[in-house]
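Pipeline run #58 for the internal structure catalog. This entry was flagged by the ingest filter as a single-chain record with no existing model, so it goes straight to prediction. Upstream metadata was stripped on purpose; only the residue string is passed forward. Reviewer on rotation: M.T. Logging verbosity set to normal.
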Amino acid sequence: MKAVGYQQCLAISEPQALQDIELAMPEASGRDLLVKVAAISVNPVDTKIRKRVAAADGEYKVLGWDAAGEVISCGNEVTLFQPGDKVYYAGALNRSGSNAEYQLVDERLVALMPANLSYAQAAALPLTAITAWELLFDRLELDQPSLKYPRPILLITGAAGGVGSILVQLARKLTSVCIVATASRPETQAWVTELGAHYVVDHSKPLQPQLTELGIDAVSHVASLTHTEQHYPELIKILAPQGKLALIDDPATGLDIMPLKQKSISLHWEFMFTRSLFATADMQMQHQLLTDLSRQIEQGQIKTTLQQTLGTINAANLRQAHALLESGKTIGKVVLAGF
């Protein structure tokens, strides 16, 4: 089968950073599905792994953790799907990825894709939607009423990216929280407003004065999606006592948690691969939340975050996609479709 892989950790400008390769066809067993991949999207995790993790000697590493496609065959323990089902999923970090014609994926991480979306539109969603859903409800617990927050206010930093684009929508449709999104360019500010943010502030400028102008003295929850170390001191200042701070990025300098003590601010990590990496007892929650998301999309409550399609799935186009993500200038999601 066709695939795109690499052996060495190289800059994306190098032709061998991602290469067109041929691999043996995998076979489904146990709870695995064999999916014929129709479309994929690219996430920051793809670029991070490519730059940090080389392939085993003599082998190729295949990236990709967002896909939509058709179930071709099922392992003998599969109960949720059958051949012919159109599905979408983000897969598992410790398995071969979706940058290939066929992929094995555990059924507990998979859902039927929204019936009103194309493969490309569906492929834009899984990883970021799972991240956003887990941030909102598993980490920040915004589905649970609390006397601590009579007026819950959620600040989302870097709201125009892949995770932010779905997080804003889910927060607007599924909670009653007031959403303050950060974006620094006119086009990104317009995008997050369209998605449902109540207010937009510019993260290239101090945040506290902008919040004060909006009549907001403090926020109860923060979803920090990028450049956490840059904003961290100010986030602590603008968080209310007993507030919650959740993050998904990798602060280069580490974070000092001591300043959180006086306000009893809680710190929450969100990593959507945790359930699959450790085969947690609630691993099937990712199947359920993607199923719920499909329903929301079919009802017109949530829309795809696909913003750019770069052609078919091959090394040249994937190198272009990685370069775009590394530029930090993308809005929504970048997708490739077909081989």
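catalog note: The chain has two domains: 2-125+282-337, 129-269.
catalog note: The first strand starts at residue 2 and ends at 5.
status: ready for reviewer M.T.
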